[in-house]
Amino acid sequence: MPPVSCSLTKFSIVLNSRSSKGNIPVIVLFAPTATGKTALVRTLFGSGSFFRFKGCVEVISADSQAVYKGLDVGTAKPTAEEQDGIPHHLIDIVSPFEQFGLGEFMTEADRLCKEIVLRGHIPLVVGGTGFYIRSFLLGSPQTPQSDPSVREKVFELLSKEGAAALHKRLSLVDEKSADRIHVNDEYRICRALEVYYTCGKPLSSFEMPEKLRDGFDFLTLIAERDKEQLYERINARVDQMFADGLEAELARLKQEGCTAETPAMKAIGYREFFDASLHTSAEIRSRIKLDSRKYAKKQITFMKGIPGAQKVSADDVETVQNLIEAFFVQHPVLAES
Question: Which of 128, 65, 134, 71 minimizes the C-alpha distance to 99?
Answer without folding.
Answer: 65
